[in-house]
Specification:
The structure holds 3 protein chains of 3 kinds. Chain A is α/β, with parallel strands linked by helices. Chain A has 13 helices and 15 strands. Helices cover 77% and strands 1% of the residues of chain C. The chains are: A alpha/beta, B mainly alpha, C mainly alpha.
């Protein structure tokens, strides 16, 4: 009897500790990923040990500081945002949030929009599309926001866009790349970033131009992003008369690529095109080196291959050299404010911004500009104002076509001497591409 | 030819680790008839512990085995004593669900503490390869393979030669008879679960230099360890070794010669085939 | 003492009556957001009750039920177009397809018992998920597929009413089954399959029937879900996570009870949303903690425990009465 009693006490103790832990975590709303950032803090103190993590924060989350504001008066303008504050995509959601916050800070410092403070109302989609839907529903019907910014992932955005369109609410997409988002015939959805098929077409055009290959191998992660980029790549390549000798989908996060690379190597492609996120990108390059795989060109569809950590020692390090990647944005792009944004972000968060943050940053400016031109928060007028957008941002020129898609010019970078340099298009380039890639044994 | 050789070698190395993971699960099932759905999560938490040891104090993963194994042995005992044991008398469904719940808690707890970001431990030898007649063999994988074999052999001797080991085997054969013969079944269960957890933890630590860490990395390993155990036979260590190697090689060959997209399906298909054709596995004798 | 026939009609009236009252909700409630949450809760009810027929009543713990949810979802997504652009027909087609799928699953898995059965359901579901994921030309693969809505427009009321009708229907069907011969056979199989076989009960046959019914309703729910979200991808409908979620509904509420999954649906649906909006990062832990807590302290689930408590109290009361009158 006594044993049972003692066991019960231990259970109660365990559950209460867990409960207290949950409550404490919940009661720190200002720093949403607070436990997360303390974990990262642990990591940041010994950076030399080759640790790896996506953009992490030092100390607590800081909102962008606002200097002494010229007077803003009246009701703040509240725009709705659904993003991944928790769940598997939380670090991307965080990158977006940081981009938003910096833009907000700057805009409000200059007097807001028509003297009214611009604010964002955040809802968490927990990295799930169905939750993105309810969150969008909530923002539109309960918080009655006049317009919305999209979630991070394509699945969530597609789900949320449908809701926004049904409720005739302007919906601005910053980051989600799946083509079908602007192919649904939605009249209220606008996207500033280029869709996945453009990643593919840009890179394949470049490859065909510079390398004139006979054969191409495509290796991609079996996700929406991977498939949406690889599929068009294959089609375009084949139309150009390039033979696709390998077309391999792999499961993201399963890092033994040796069989895969062995297989691709034996197909002897002139060029290889990877579509991967950071960890896979790192391992793909490192293991390609181990297996002495030497195509004439290593190319990639952005994402992992364009991230700052990719070239660092804890990433692919020297194995990253000469890889080419198509990307939405780089800090040295010749767009107004790009460099400043990069500097500000790095200063605030101790890490370089990825393009997701830049996209978010620009999106706020686009929204603010539309509100100003509309002169009202009426949804229809706001929508029309958005449709007529014609401006230059730190993310490049923004002008939407009839489907609400902006023709965002993609850039191609190459890793030269350990840093990313823009090599294409020629008017944006700061270096010429190195081709062919020297084999591993000669590096 | 060299593609084939490379593939098989890769498969064997991976298989060694699968075997180690499977051994932990098979021991627990043999003794307690409990299917631990949180097995992969134990592996995952051990990876994070190894990561912390490395990033905070520079402890090499192979050395941290001496820390993670005992820690998880104790942790396993704790879980068994306070969560599994009370539920042993309940229907099997409850036991399964309990371990599923524990797995969920562990995965989400880690996500809470470390976020879902992928993390990596890069040691000086993470990329080291040894070229053996044209085949590139990864050094850390080989090291992990060797250690896994050593642990397995040690475990084997423990179970065969020591008194506790014999008591464990007796309990596995017939729980009630063992109790009648004076074995402290409760304590045996705790120790067994501890060993099983420690084996999973060892596999996690060994994987750390070559794998990435993220909170949900455990799930697929749980499923793979089931495949290993069912292939070899629940309760049989030799079976787990065999099962692990088979799975490793099959996955490797399948990835190269069939399709990388269906790589995981290979394990499942083997699993289903065995369950249908020879459910007791190739070495096991338990009823289904 | 109430007679059995009175009990039967009481329950049916209670359920139908509750359904009728709940039907007025969309006309009284102005918040579209709350309606949205309720629709998900009702969907959960259908899922939980359907799963429970196989899990709770027949004692077969399936952790691969997402495969039926998925076939319903992909059915309405892919089959609406060839069937005259009608999502209703697509939904029906998907549900009908769940039957041969159930036969296949049963054929493969029912020869196994207990945990082996569970493992087999997981393995089979994962293989099917991988097939769907990799068949990009057919299913869109990881890119997902957009789905036509059953009801056009913003009004949630028709969705709500459909979900409500479905839930009530499934509860009633389950109730009728439990009061029928089939129900008793299933309980016998659950308690001791070998003994049941020995007495001449075709265990495999009846398990198949339970699976077929369970699969059918699960896939209808899947079709509804897909059309409601107007977009699906494999991870949303075919994942192990989804399977676990489905079975959680019944476990938390009470495995062998009819109302158990209803309670489970309420808790997971309502509380889940509350946790998401109020607990921040911590909400991810709630499923796991709930599951462990229920298994350890209330293995009968909430309704089951209440029932037991009720029985205990009832017994005590009648003892008291006897003592008094003696």
């Amino acid at each position: 009897m006594e044993n049972v009693f003692r066991s019960k006490l231990i259970y109660i103790a365990f559950v209460s500790i867990l409960g207290v832990g949950i409550v404490l975590t919940a009661c720190s709303p200002a720093s949403a990923p607070a436990p997360g950032s303390s974990g990262k803090e642990l990591v940041m103190t010994t950076p030399a040990k080759g640790t790896e993590s996506a953009p992490s924060a030092k100390a607590s989350e800081k909102a962008a500081p606002t200097e002494a504001k010229p007077s803003v008066s009246g009701e703040p303008i509240k725009i709705g945002v659904v993003t991944s504050l928790t769940g598997s995509q939380a670090n991307f959601g965080q990158a977006q949030k940081r981009g938003y916050e910096i833009a907000l800070g700057e805009i409000n410092a200059k007097g807001g929009v028509d003297r009214r403070k611009l604010e964002l109302v955040y809802e968490d989609d927990a990295s799930k599309p169905e939750t993105a839907m309810s969150a969008t529903e909530k923002l539109i019907t309960q918080d009655k926001v006049p317009a919305m910014m999209s979630p991070y992932s394509s699945a969530a955005t597609l789900a949320a866009a449908g809701v926004a369109d049904k409720y005739e609410t302007p919906f601005l997409v910053a980051t989600s790349a799946a083509d079908n988002i602007t192919e649904q015939g939605y009249k209220w959805v606008f996207r500033i970033c280029a869709p996945s098929s453009v990643y593919a077409s840009t890179m394949v055009d470049f490859i065909a131009d510079i390398a004139k290959p006979q054969t191409l191998a495509i290796v991609f992660e079996n996700t929406n992003f991977g498939t949406s980029t690889a599929g068009p790549a294959k089609e375009i390549a084949e139309k150009k008369g390039i033979k696709v000798v390998a077309y391999e989908a792999y499961k993201a996060g399963a890092p033994d690529f040796k069989p895969l690379i062995t297989k691709v190597k034996s197909a002897n492609p002139d060029v290889v095109f990877f579509v991967s996120y950071l960890m896979d990108a790192t391992l793909l390059m490192r293991q390609s080196k181990e297996l002495d795989f030497n195509p004439k060109m290593y190319t990639a569809g952005g994402a992992g291959f364009s991230m700052a950590e990719f070239v660092s020692e804890s990433g692919a390090g020297r194995a990253a050299e000469y890889t080419l990647s198509v990307t939405q944005w780089t800090a040295d792009a010749k767009w107004p404010g790009a460099k400043d944004f990069d500097a500000k972000f790095t200063e605030l968060y101790n890490v370089a911004p990825e393009y997701h943050a830049a996209e978010a940053y620009a999106a706020v400016y686009v929204m603010a500009d539309a509100i100003k031109r509309a002169g009202t928060l009426d949804k229809t007028k706001l929508r029309d104002a958005l449709a007529n957008t014609d401006m230059n941002t730190a993310f490049g020129p923004i002008k939407f076509n009839a489907q609400g898609q902006n023709s965002h010019p993609m850039l191609i970078t190459q890793v030269q001497k350990g840093t990313f340099v823009t090599v294409w298009p020629t008017d944006a380039a700061s270096a010429t591409p190195v081709f062919p890639t020297p084999p591993w044994s000669q590096r | 030819m060299s593609v084939l050789a490379q593939t098989i070698v890769g498969g064997i190395l991976l298989g060694g680790l699968y075997a180690l993971i499977g051994i932990g699960l098979t021991i627990v099932f043999g003794v307690m008839r409990v299917i631990n759905f949180a097995h992969g999560e134990f592996l995952m938490v051990s990876m994070y512990l190894t990561y912390l040891l490395f990033t905070l104090w520079g402890v090499d993963p192979f050395l941290s085995l001496f820390i993670t194994m005992p820690v998880f042995f104790l942790f396993g005992m704790f879980i068994q004593r306070f969560f599994i044991s009370p539920v042993l008398k309940a229907p099997e469904m409850n036991q399964i669900l309990l371990t599923v719940g524990i797995g969920l808690i562990l995965a989400n707890l880690i996500q809470l503490l470390f976020s879902a970001d992928y993390r990596q431990v890069k040691t000086s030898y993470s990329d080291a390869v040894v070229g053996v007649s044209g085949i590139s063999v990864s050094l850390p994988y080989s090291g992990a393979f060797v250690v896994a074999i050593l642990i397995t052999v040690a475990l084997y001797f423990f179970l065969m030669r020591t008194d506790t080991g014999k008591a464990i085997r007796a309990t596995a054969q017939d729980r009630d008879a063992a109790a009648l013969m004076g074995a402290d079944v409760g304590r045996i269960s705790m120790i067994t679960f501890g060993i099983g957890t420690a084996a999973a933890a060892a596999a996690g630590t060994l994987l750390t230099p070559v794998y990435y860490l993220f909170p949900t990395v455990g799930g697929p390993f749980t499923l793979k360890s089931f495949v290993v155990v069912v292939l070899g036979g629940m309760g049989s260590i030799l079976g787990a070794i065999f099962g692990g190697l088979t799975l490793g090689i099959a996955e490797s060959l399948g990835a190269v010669y069939v399709s990388t997209g269906y790589q995981d399906a290979i394990g499942f298909l083997i699993f289903l085939l065995i369950l249908i054709l020879k459910p007791s596995g190739l070495f096991g004798k338990s009823r289904v | 003492m109430k007679t059995l026939s009175n009990l039967r009609s009481n329950f049916v009236y209670a359920v139908v009556g509750t359904g009728a009252i709940l039907a007025f909700v969309p006309f009284v409630l102005s918040s579209s957001y709350l309606l949205q949450v309720l629709i998900i809760v009702l969907l959960f009810v259908t899922l939980g009750v359907s799963w429970n027929l196989l899990g709770g009543y027949s004692g077969q713990l399936s952790l691969g039920h997402a495969v039926f949810f998925g076939i319903g979802a992909y059915g309405v997504a892919l089959l609406s177009k060839p069937l005259g652009q009608s999502p209703w027909l697509g939904l029906l087609a998907g549900a009908v397809l769940s039957l041969p799928l159930a036969a296949f699953v049963g054929y493969v898995c029912f020869r196994l018992r207990g945990p082996y059965f569970t493992l087999a359901t997981i393995a089979l579901a994962e293989v099917i998920r991988l097939v769907v994921l990799n068949s990009v030309d057919l299913t869109g693969g990881a890119k997902g597929v957009t789905v036509r809505p059953l009801f056009k427009g913003v009004d949630k009321a028709p969705w709500y009413l459909l979900a409500l009708g479905l839930a009530v229907f499934v509860v009633l069907v389950t109730y009728l089954i439990t009061r029928s011969k089939l129900g008793y056979y299933l309980v016998a199989i659950r308690e001791d399959e070998d003994a049941a076989e020995a007495v001449g009960v075709d265990a495999t046959g009846y398990k198949m029937v339970a699976l077929a019914i369970s699969a059918f309703f699960t896939s209808v729910a899947g079709g509804f879900f897909a059309s409601y979200l107007s977009f699906i991808e494999p991870d949303m409908v075919l994942s192990v996570e989804r399977s676990v979620e489905i079975c959680l509904l019944a476990i938390i509420g009470g495995l062998g009870t009819i109302l158990g999954p209803v309670v489970g649906a309420l808790i997971l649906g309502l509380a889940g949303e509350w946790f998401r909006t109020n607990l921040g990062q911590a909400h991810l832990l709630t499923y796991g903690v709930l599951l462990v807590a229920v298994i350890m302290f209330m293995p009968e689930g909430i309704v089951g425990t209440m029932k037991k408590a009720g029985q205990v109290i009832g017994k005590r009361l009648s003892e008291e009465r006897r003592r008094v009158t003696a």
